[in-house]
Amino acid sequence: MTAHDRAREVKAQALTLGFDAVGITDLEPTPHAAELRRWLGEGMAGTMRYMHRQADRRLHPETIVPGATRAVVVLKNYYHPDPPAPDGSWGHVARYARGEDYHTSLAGPLRALADAIIALGAADTIARPFVDAGPVPERELAQRAGLGWIGKNTMLIAPRAGSFFFIATVLTDLDLALDAPFTADRCGTCRRCLDACPTDAFPEARLLDARRCISYLTIEHRGSFDAAEPPALHDWVFGCDVCQDVCPWNERFAVTGDGAFALDPALAWLDLEELDALTEGEFTARYGQTPLERPGLEGLTRNAAAVRGARRPTDA
């Protein structure tokens, strides 16, 4: 088989396994080193110290898995319509978190894809899967693999599909033909995502200050919020979808994903008072297999308190 034959076979396997799109790129160093260094140097990573530790490997993805030369990048749609807000004191949850943890959901098919790659090569072929873990620069690799462009909100936008996708990769040393990168910027003059951000987390297009981002604050931020000036989370208790919701590419093209992610509409809104009453055991039983587990009960109750504190009595 030629490199093109193997690439076609890998792509066919990815689609058969339920992924919505697939592309292949190399692991050459990123051309965006200065931007990452600036972002880290200005403290925009907040308390995500792992971003500093991983910086060199993010800039040189060929070092992530020694010997790997290719990235097989796949997308999986998780879009589901947003149910209306219930009456009372509730906190909003980002779409991707309303069901089984995507690390778990994607692990099986991604491992199967890695096995299919190995089957096309020698017995010692490298094929290591990654699902939003480690220093893999998923969005950049996806753009280089021809799957879309990086929007002004820093999200990967796939043409005629939008941005409600998980990105996963398999790093391999199998000789596979490369796809052409997606070089067009189809955001044009639109800045709806920048203007809609409720916390002004974008100092400029394609630059996200995590310290102001609701997703970061409700999920990744460690420790208590400043009691004198808690962040404005609006009604978001876990994550935020605002910059994606207003994107014209999502408004026009986002469609409900398949049954691989059986999202629970009941998880779109969490009862803030009920969160305060949960024990650790109850929290683990209810949310331990979902992305809500990441900030833990302590983090979610911290977020709930910030949401309640920002509301006037007539808002609750």
Fraction of residues in H or I helices = 25-40%
Calculate the mean pLDDT score and round it. 94
Radius of gyration: 20 Å
- Separate helix tally: 13
Strand percent estimate:
5-15%
State the shape: globular
Q: If strands are numbered along the chain, what order do they take across the biggest sheet?
A: 1-2-7-4
Would you identify the regions where 5 or more consecutive residues have pLDDT less than 50? Answer: none
Structural class estimated from helices and strands: alpha+beta
Order of helices and strands: HEHHHEEHEHEEEHHEHHEHHH
Walk me through what this model shows:
This protein is α+β, with helices and mostly antiparallel strands and 316 residues long. It contains 13 helices and 9 strands. The strands form 3 sheets. Strands 1-2-7-4 form a 4-stranded antiparallel beta sheet, with helices on both faces. A 3-stranded mixed beta sheet has the order 8-3-9. A hairpin with a 5-residue loop joins strand 5 and strand 6. Helix 1 runs antiparallel to helix 5. The radius of gyration is 20 Å and the shape is globular. The protein starts with a helix and ends in a 7-residue tail after the last helix.
Briefly summarize what is shown.
The chain has 13 helices and 9 strands.
